[in-house]
Amino acid sequence: MVELLRFRTDEPSESPAVTVDCFGEQTNAGAVRIEPGDDARELLPHLAHITRVEVNFPVFGDGRGYSAARILREAGYEGEIRAVGDVAVDQLAALRRCGFDAFQPDVPMNDADADAALARWDNVYQKTTDGRAPIWALRHGNANA
């Protein structure tokens, strides 16, 4: 069973995460936790000092965390972005495409199910932060789109 699934080669940061509201007051904080309703753009001036961003998914249907990860990746953040909370195996591929590189679900996942979910689709339709070219770009000879 998978309790922490990471797609990084560096050592995992396990320092306690502070909330976005408290981050400005914690000069030594290296990990931040984004809750639904928090604005990830508040972290942009501090990305060089953050080693891990946890994005909380309190319920399966709350998709605001996808945007937070994409905002951070498009701003150049290269540290760990970890999805925590009610993260289901069905979400892994989409979360990965938006920039998440670690997952810590409330309920551990079956290894085989996680692998299958991440390998399910050979082609994608939207351009996102994972570097995969969308199928329309490949069809038109523009793999860099």
Quick tags:
5 helices, 145 residues, Rossmann fold, 17% strand, six-stranded mixed β-sheet, alpha/beta, globular
Task: Explain how this protein is built.
Helix 2 links the parallel strand 4 and strand 5 (80-85). The chain has helices at 20-23, 64-74, 92-98, 111-119, 135-139, and strands at residues 5-6, 18-19, 31-34, 52-57, 80-85, 102-105. The protein has 5 helices and 6 strands. The chain has a single domain (5-139), classed as Rossmann fold. With 145 residues, it is α/β, with parallel strands linked by helices.
CATH topology: Rossmann fold
Radius of gyration: 16 Å
Work out the number of β strands: 6
Q: Name the structural class.
A: alpha/beta
Low-confidence stretches: none
Order of helices and strands: EEHEEHEHEHH
For the record, the count of structural domains works out to 1
Q: What is the CATH architecture descriptor? A: 3-Layer(aba) Sandwich
Main beta-sheet strand count, sense and barrel state: 6 strands, mixed
Looking across the biggest beta sheet, what order are the strands in?
A: 1-6-5-4-3-2
Distance between the termini: 37 Å
CATH secondary-structure class: Alpha Beta
Question: What does the average pLDDT come to?
Answer: 86
Number of helices: 5
Which shape, going by the Cα principal axes?
A: globular
Which strand-content bin applies to the residues? 15-25%
Helix content: 10-25%
